[in-house]
Amino acid sequence: MISILIPTYNYNIVPLVNELYKQVTKEKIDFEILVYDDGSLSDINKKNESINSLNNCLFKALCNHKINGVFENPNTHKL
């Protein structure tokens, strides 16, 4: 399986994801495509959400989400 992670910032990623999707399904590759946006309040994100209708594809806007690293995670051991 391959995982393709694409960070975006106010960018219409739909054409790229559609092309990647077409290529990996044609080659019968086990895959996932994950697209993460910075969470800006752009109309482009509404277009990018169409990615979620494709199998093994996810678009997620990270607005208002605190992202904790491994050192802030209470479930990890302190180094």
Number of helices: 2
Q: What is the general shape?
A: elongated
Number of beta strands: 3
Helix share bin: 10-25%
Through-space gap between termini: 32 Å
Biggest sheet features: 3 strands, parallel
Please provide a written account of the structure.
The protein is of the alpha/beta class and 79 residues long. It is built from two helices and three strands; from the N terminus they run βαβαβ. A three-stranded parallel beta sheet has the order 1-2-3, with helices on one face. Strand 2 (31-37), helix 2 (44-48) and strand 3 form a beta-alpha-beta unit. The mean pLDDT is 83.
Please give the structural blueprint.
Elements: E1 2-8, H1 14-26, E2 31-37, H2 44-48, E3 57-61
Parallel strand pairs: 1-2, 2-3
Summarize the structure.
By secondary structure, the protein is an alpha/beta fold. Helix content is about 25%, strand content about 25%.
Notable characteristics:
alpha/beta; 23% helix; three-stranded parallel β-sheet
